[in-house]
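User: Study the chain.
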Amino acid sequence: MLRMAVLVSGGGTNLQAIIDSIGNGTVTNAEIAVVISNNRSAYALERAKQNGIDAAVVSPKDYASREEFNGALLQKIQSYHVDLVVLAGCLVVIPKIMVEAYPNRIINIHPSLIPSFCGTGYYGLKVHEAALERGVKVTGATVHFVDDGTDTGPIILQKAVEIKDGDTPEILQRRVMEEAEWVIMPKAIDLIANGKVKVVDHRTVILEG
């Protein structure tokens, strides 16, 4: 059974998609051990409690330095003996010590088709604003492993989403979540939980069957 720590900063819609997918059997051989947020008011914490999942807050505001916060966050994750760390709308920069502690065992969901509209400064609505400003016709979402860079780790899954006339950043954000993020994040977890993902030379290989 794959034990996961899910890190969130806000409402937790991707968290809910994972919870629902485990509940309906779309994701097998996996469980959420803990939900951790840097934000005490994150609704994701309430989602965890409603589903009988441990919820914890590790906030940088409670520590004198970023190094102390990073150490406390890693210690909290390690205390749950997890196999996979899932970043589901987590706005905290993942420190190098965590990447080193969990090599190819941290995954992130990004609301674009990497390498488009990713990297430093591209998060939340900013991604969708940039896509609409550029005039692209297709966007989407990407699940990838986390490495030392920003959105540079090996890609696991991607799903395209059509951009429609009249889209606003908010409308596009919702469509990308519904049609892509909530689909490929659970699917990636299921693949990992069942031993069907392998990283070779910084590229991800999906082992079917």
